[in-house]
Amino acid sequence: MKANKLGALLLSGMLLLAAAGCGSNGASGTNGANKASGSQEPASSAAGNASGSNGESSAPSTDAKDLKDIKVVLDWTPNTNHTGLYVAQELGYYKEEGLNVQIVQPDEGGADAMIASDAVPFGISYQESITQAQTQGVPLVSIAAVIQHNTSGFAAPADRNIKAPKDFEGKRYGGWGSPVEEAVMKSIMDLQNADVNKVKIINIGDADYFTAVKRDVDFAWIYYAWTGIEAELRGEKLDMLYVKDYSKDLDYYTPVIATNEKEIQQNPDLVKAFMKATSKGYEYAIAHPDEAADILIKAAPDLDPKLVKASQEWLSPRYQDDASRWGEQKESVWTGYANWMYERKLLDKPLDASKAFTNDFLPES
């Protein structure tokens, strides 16, 4: 779950080339209501009909020849951001909708390129990368918010004495080389009359947070649900500065479930069926975090079971949080963050939010 690692704001040329083949020849669905990786190796996807560990029976078996084969691509290695997908697969929710879903890892071009080019119909993305994509004519569309509020922020070992953004001055920040990092840092440091130019920014790429803060840097950007919980389990105290606590515009959706405009235009029934089953998967994870964690552990046995259990317990109530239903997205969140990006010259032009997201395929609450 490295925060925004695969959703960096500057989309690669590969993404743009892939999307060019797909084309953007129409509006996406309209929105009716107007977002610290594990280092585990990719896990094979679990097949779909076993019972959940709470004794709940999965859906009756459907002849495989009657199912439509589709793939959904992750943004990173399996983690608790993805639990609902694995639950929907394991408990037969996808099969109930006539789908045989394979959960796959992104190739070198990344998940966004695979989704935009229609190599896969669905995948995990981020509000910031979809915003950037849409303003560049790349036809990515968000169809659900996995987590209702931004759980990412700047984290530091407690002994670095970083209690507020002003304390970034004179410290070493370890990031992945995206302009958004310095922009967010500057934005929250300005509130305390601090100078972002006094921060030494170091590109640590895919380096593990715990290794990096012991060796190279003082703080980094993480998702608390994974790296923060891991720190708790290790007994390593850290100070966490959630970016959403400093600006409502930074309370964006990360991650999200994405598709492309072609799927919405040509296969709306497929999108609806996929989202009906996926919603059930996340709703199950909200109601049964322990059993849902077991399903993720079964699908990705290389994960640390203690970390998965603790992370799932922390994250499950945050999937839906204060929204009326899981996955709901607000236009104000999309426009607020896009305007923030545009004002800081992270976008070439303003975002038309109506093309970037839709709630139309979520089941009624």
TrEMBL record:
<keyword id="KW-0732">Signal</keyword>
<feature type="domain" description="SsuA/THI5-like">
    <location>
        <begin position="79"/>
        <end position="292"/>
    </location>
</feature>
<feature type="signal peptide">
    <location>
        <begin position="1"/>
        <end position="20"/>
    </location>
</feature>
<feature type="region of interest" description="Disordered">
    <location>
        <begin position="28"/>
        <end position="64"/>
    </location>
</feature>
<dbReference type="Pfam" id="PF09084">
    <property type="entry name" value="NMT1"/>
</dbReference>
<dbReference type="InterPro" id="IPR015168">
    <property type="entry name" value="SsuA/THI5"/>
</dbReference>
<protein>
    <submittedName>
        <fullName>ABC transporter substrate-binding protein</fullName>
    </submittedName>
</protein>
<feature type="compositionally biased region" description="Low complexity">
    <location>
        <begin position="28"/>
        <end position="61"/>
    </location>
</feature>
<dbReference type="InterPro" id="IPR027939">
    <property type="entry name" value="NMT1/THI5"/>
</dbReference>
